[in-house]
Design goal:
Shape: elongated
Structural class: mainly alpha
Strand content: under 5%
Distance between the termini: 133 Å
Number of helices: 20
Helix content: over 70%
Radius of gyration: 61 Å
Number of strands: 0
């Protein structure tokens, strides 16, 4: 924009370059004159954006459809080629190609041109999408330039109107000042001409007081007032000229925009909308024609127009009965059928697998059942654990009182439950911590159904230890020994033998109490509740634990005398 508010030639040229060759004509009857509508250009620009968005949607669809067709064509081609290779690799019989194989091969071969048609169709769709996409980009640039041109004109008009408002404000201020001075000067002149001269000082003082009220403290002369009025009038005229000049320039710019430039831009946008809509219509028509052509090409491939047979005729050439007869004649031999019965062949499992298939559990199994099953007098776990403790743990401090590692104890338990025969406790991996072996033996005794001492004998044996006193004479000692021997004698043989084995072992342990700190009293605290589980009643549990500990201690101290009395 130039200093006087007019558009420069470059700006007008830019506006003319963005417009098309279409000229904006006056609307006919029934049509809307967009030049008379506020926001008409914005409405058309929005319409053009909608048209371009429709083109973008078409681009996305064409690309997606091209990808679908390409994938379908490649998959169809791959399936056909793989099937042909399979047929070439041995699908033919020694009697030659059957009618079914011949028809099947021809059917598969038809799919290769079908795949080629689809891939050709995909290429065409991709080219259409690329061309339409480039066209949209070009027209978006045109639309952007048209919008920027309109905005540039609007900004220039707004800037000119702002300058005009400032000039109008200045003009009004100068005129108001000039008006005030004119009134003041005229009032002063009128006061001079109507005043009456007087020689009395009183009258002079009154006159001066009136002048001071009208003109202030210092009364200006008539000449100075005339000069000030003239200067104010000149300023008002200058402001008036500037205001009229800017008003003329702004109106000229508005007329140029609303009468010339805006119609051109409207015509260009209108032409853009029509062109984009027509191009989209052309593209969609081309897509429809291409699609119909592709479908027609597939139809001709499946059913040729000339004398060649189609897929239905290919299938009709199959003679299944003739194919079967030819196959049987070619493959028939003189070999006889072996009608002998097939012998049974048992699968031979590995020893480890047989163990898992037929485990021999001992934990939670009654003494009678496991010893009858294993044909033993004493549980094997008792023998193995006591032997290991006697070999490695007699001098181990706190043996049977200290617990082993939970994971190792559970591992030992699992191995004994699987096959106690193959558990080697003499290995260094087990002997390194004898407390693990001692803990698994205690766990076994705790989990024996009914306990090591049966309930009938348990009640009788504990009755000898109802008194809390430890003092006893020889008669009481003999009575306890004979009573315990009688109760042990009444036990089942398996319980009696197992109890004897355990007590013999514990006697060996207490023999090394100087080293392991496990005398008969300490061992009885550990094994009392284990050999004789407490009563289920909570009120009797604590008493039973104390009585069972005293009983085990008594038995350990008098083991030989008790078992000799059996």
């Amino acid at each position: 924009m130039s200093a006087n508010g007019d558009f420069s030639e470059s700006e007008k040229l830019a506006g003319s370059q963005t417009s098309t060759s279409l000229s904006f004509v006056s609307p006919s009857a029934g049509q809307v004159d967009l030049t008379e509508i506020d926001g008409g250009l914005h409405m058309l620009l929005e319409r053009s954006r909608g048209s371009l968005n429709s083109c973008k949607e078409a681009v996305v669809f064409l690309k997606s459809r091209a990808k679908v067709e390409e994938d379908y064509g490649r998959a169809l081609q791959k399936a056909a080629q793989q099937t042909v290779r399979l047929m070439d690799n041995g699908s033919r019989t020694s009697s030659g190609m059957s009618t079914q194989q011949a028809a099947w091969q021809r059917l598969v071969e038809v799919h290769e041109p079908l795949a080629a048609n689809r891939m050709k169709f995909a290429i065409t769709l991709f080219e259409m999408s690329e061309y339409l996409g480039n066209y949209v980009k070009t027209k978006e640039n045109v639309r952007r330039k048209l919008r920027e041109t309109e905005q540039r004109y609007q900004r220039a008009i707004e800037e000119s109107q702002q300058l005009l408002d400032k000039a109008k404000t200045k003009y009004d201020m100068q005129c108001a000042e000039w008006e005030k001075l004119l009134v003041r000067c005229g009032d002063s002149k009128q006061a001079e001409t109507t005043a009456v001269p007087s020689v009395h000082s009183g009258n002079r003082s009154a006159k001066n007081a009136v002048s001071g009220i009208i003109f202030g403290k210092h009364k200006p002369t008539i000449e100075s007032l005339d000069r000030i009025c003239q200067e104010a009038g000149v300023k008002a005229k200058v402001a008036n000229e500037a205001y009229k000049r800017l008003l003329q320039q702004t109106n000229a710019m508005r007329r140029d925009f609303y009468d010339v430039q805006q119609p051109k831009i409207l015509a260009s946008v209108m032409g853009l909308v029509e062109e984009v809509d027509q191009f989209l219509k052309f593209t969609l028509g081309k897509y429809a024609y291409t699609y119909e052509s592709a479908v027609l090409a597939d139809a001709i491939t499946l059913k040729p127009m000339d004398a060649q047979v189609g897929m239905v005729e290919m299938v009709g050439d199959i003679d299944s009965k003739a194919d079967l007869d030819s196959y049987v004649q070619a493959m028939a031999t003189t070999a006889r059928v072996d009608r002998a019965s097939i012998p049974y062949r048992e699968y031979r499992m590995s020893p480890r697998a047989r163990l898992y298939a037929n485990p021999r559990p001992i934990f939670g199994v009654s003494l009678h059942d496991q010893l009858t099953r294993d044909a033993r007098r004493v549980p094997l776990i008792m023998v193995r654990c006591t032997e290991a403790v006697e070999a490695f743990g007699l001098q181990n401090e706190g043996i049977y009182r200290q617990s082993g590692q939970s994971s190792q104890v559970q591992r030992l338990r699992s191995e004994f439950d699987l096959d106690a025969e193959n558990v080697n406790l003499q290995a260094s991996s087990y002997a390194s911590d004898i407390n693990n072996i001692a803990s698994v033996l205690k766990m076994y005794l705790r989990e024996l159904p009914g306990g090591l001492v049966p309930h009938a004998q348990r009640t009788t044996m504990l009755a000898h230890f109802s008194s809390e006193s430890n003092s006893e004479d020889e008669l009481e000692l003999a009575q306890k020994i004979s009573g315990l021997a009688a109760s042990i004698r009444e036990m089942p043989q398996v319980n009696r033998d197992t109890l004897r084995c355990l007590l013999v072992h514990l006697d060996k342990v207490q023999a090394f109490q100087e080293y392991n700190m496990m005398n008969s009293e300490n061992l009885s605290i550990v094994f009392g509740p284990t050999i004789l589980p407490p009563d289920n009643a909570p009120s009797n549990a604590a008493l039973d634990i104390r009585r069972s500990a005293r009983m085990v201690k008594f038995i350990l101290d008098n083991r030989r005398a008790i078992f000799d009395a059996l």
